[in-house]
């Protein structure tokens, strides 16, 4: 199992460590539901150094990304970030990614568990493009601050960068915890305001400790992957292996915003299949809530009468919504707000109601 | 050391004799694994109806926390005669006292042979192995 540069920090903070995507990561430091509330109400600190970080350079970097990714890279303003996916010719994804468009580079953040496959996929489709792929996963640590008090917390240790001026899904460089020229983006996977910071691995421990100290006055706590999963589900964000995978395409997952059919983007891998799906989807990803006690879990069957109509993709106890929540694919005629389906629990049933996604969206000031 | 007045399954259930019936429960280790020391993390416990016949090793229920579901397995064969109704609505009772007040079900055993079960020492040893 791989260790992040912050691995040894987690257990002294009370972290329970688990395997995730090939890495040994903290699943929680305290009660998961309290960690969720901490991020919704204050600010949480996350070690995300397991995420894959790939840097593409060379004259064809942008054109290459436009060939392999669903988003329109050439149209991303410099200093901005877009969500996209790497798809197979079938339109089903290998991974979902964030694309950072820099002046002389394109920087990709990918899922830990898919990083090897992503790198292999990119390499195998790079013929004819003048592009260099550099894996920065090991040399960079990735730390996120998420929650309404992220900005004030990060500002205490940041110079050379005006955080209030850094817009949502934008990035810039600044000095963070004394470390110069650090990439900082206003991004996250929680539905809250927040930042992701990419530092050289050798500065990771010092920065992590300095951030925890700087965040004290704001009620900051370290947050594990358990709460992160609940936070992203409440915010209606997909997780590879749950809402999207080799059998679930981005169109039916409601991710059209990350897919460009713009003519000038040209042909890209998966385009034809996704265009077809876009005009004739057969199912849709929906949100479900249930008032029952049982928590929906991935793989549970959904029944409409006696007919098996779908499967739970993700489920969680949601302290923010105050109910258990889940996502699932349903055929279009059932993917309607207010529709009730039953979750099958070894023969027992519990009613679930289709609701609009996301379950939670923050009030923007 | 765990109580030595009962026997254990490696899957963390215990069984204790009580007159002509036996009582099943789960260990503090199981509770800790599910709740990480936070009793509110336990959300649901599904127990069988009285009258149900259980084979040895059969799954008789499930216990659920915020992030996981665990099967409850029968250490001995028999018929369910009583269910601890308190814990269905008050899982804190199980979290706080898994050895006594947090018992799960009472069973009239078909067979009281415990040769397939672990004693307290054997159970502790099995935990050591799992940790390593």
Total beta strands of chain B: 9
How much strand of chain B? Answer: 25-35%
Largest sheet of chain B, in brief, is: 6 strands, antiparallel
Average of per-residue pLDDT values of chain B: 93
Features:
heterodimer, A: 365 residues, alpha+beta, seven-stranded mixed beta sheet, six-stranded antiparallel β-barrel, 20 strands, B: 132 residues, six-stranded antiparallel beta sheet, three-stranded antiparallel beta sheet, 4 helices, 9 strands
Task: Describe the protein's topology.
The complex is a heterodimer of chains A (365) and B (132).
Chain A: H1 7-10, E1 16-20, E2 23-28, H2 32-41, E3 44-47, E4 52-57, H3 61-68, E5 80-87, E6 93-101, E7 106-110, H4 115-124, E8 132-135, E9 140-146, H5 150-155, E10 158-159, E11 171-176, E12 179-185, E13 194-200, H6 204-215, E14 221-222, H7 225-234, H8 271-279, E15 283-290, E16 301-304, E17 307-318, E18 323-331, E19 340-345, E20 348-355
Helix pairs in contact in A: 2-7
Chain B: E1 7-8, E2 13-18, E3 21-26, H1 28-35, E4 42-46, E5 53-54, E6 59-65, E7 69-73, E8 78-83, H2 85-89, H3 91-96, E9 105-109, H4 120-131
Antiparallel strand pairs in B: 1-2, 2-3, 3-9, 4-6, 5-8, 6-7, 8-9
Structure, explained:
Chain A has about 375 residues and is α+β, with helices and mostly antiparallel strands. Chain A contains 8 helices and 20 strands. In chain A, helix 2 crosses helix 7. The mean pLDDT of chain A is about 95. Chain B is of the alpha+beta class and about 130 residues long. In chain B, strand 2 and strand 3 form a beta hairpin. Chain B is globular. Chain B starts with 6 loop residues before the first strand and ends with a helix. The interface between A and B is medium-sized, with 17 and 11 residues.
């Amino acid at each position: 199992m791989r260790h992040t540069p912050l691995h040894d920090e987690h257990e002294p903070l009370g972290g329970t460590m688990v395997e995730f995507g090939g890495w040994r990561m903290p699943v929680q430091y305290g009660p998961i539901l309290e960690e969720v509330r901490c991020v919704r109400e204050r600010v949480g600190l996350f070690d995300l150094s397991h995420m894959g970080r790939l840097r593409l350079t060379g004259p064809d970097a942008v054109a290459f990304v436009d060939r392999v990714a669903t988003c329109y890279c050439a149209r991303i303003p410099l200093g901005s970030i877009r969500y996209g996916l790497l798809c197979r010719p079938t339109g089903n994804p290998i991974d979902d990614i964030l694309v950072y468009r820099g002046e002389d580079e394109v920087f990709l953040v990918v899922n830990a568990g898919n990083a090897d496959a992503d790198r292999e996929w990119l390499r195998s489709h790079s013929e004819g493009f003048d592009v260099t792929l550099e894996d920065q996963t090991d040399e960079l640590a990735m730390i996120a601050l998420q929650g309404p008090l992220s900005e004030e917390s990060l500002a205490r240790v940041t110079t050379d960068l005006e955080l209030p001026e850094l817009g949502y899904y934008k990035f810039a460089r600044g000095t963070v915890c004394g470390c110069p020229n650090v990439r900082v983006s206003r991004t996250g996977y929680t539905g809250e305001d927040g930042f992701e910071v990419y530092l050289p691995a050798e500065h990771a421990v010092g920065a992590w400790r300095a951030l925890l100290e700087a965040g004290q006055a704001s009620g900051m706590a370290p947050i594990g992957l358990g709460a992160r999963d609940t936070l992203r589900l409440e915010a209606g964000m997909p997780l590879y292996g749950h809402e999207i995978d080799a059998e679930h395409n981005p169109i039916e997952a409601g991710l059209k915003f990350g897919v460009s059919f713009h003519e000038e983007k040209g042909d890209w891998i998966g385009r034809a299949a996704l265009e077809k799906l876009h005009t004739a989807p057969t199912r849709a990803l929906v949100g479900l809530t249930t008032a029952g006690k049982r928590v929906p879990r991935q793989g549970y069957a959904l029944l409409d009468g006696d007919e098996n109509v779908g499967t739970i993709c993700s489920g969680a106890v949601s302290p923010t919504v105050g109910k258990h929540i889940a996502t699932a694919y349903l055929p279009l005629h059932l993917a309607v707000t207010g529709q009730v389906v039953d979750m099958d629990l070894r023969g027992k049933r519990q009613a679930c109601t289709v609701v609009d996604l996301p379950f939670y969206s923050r009030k923007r000031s | 050391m765990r109580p030595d007045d009962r026997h254990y399954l490696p899957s963390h259930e215990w069984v204790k004799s009580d007159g002509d019936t036996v009582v099943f429960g789960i260990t503090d280790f199981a509770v800790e694994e599910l709740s990480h020391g936070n009793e509110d993390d336990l959300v649901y416990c599904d127990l069988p109806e009285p009258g149900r016949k259980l084979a040895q090793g059969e799954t008789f229920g499930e216990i659920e926390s915020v992030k996981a579901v665990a099967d409850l397995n029968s250490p001995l064969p028999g018929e369910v005669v009583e269910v601890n109704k308190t814990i269905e609505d008050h899982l804190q009772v199980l979290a706080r006292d898994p050895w006594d007040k947090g018992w799960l079900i009472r069973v009239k055993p078909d067979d009281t042979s415990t040769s397939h079960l672990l004693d307290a020492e054997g159970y502790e040893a099995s935990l050591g192995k799992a940790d390593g």
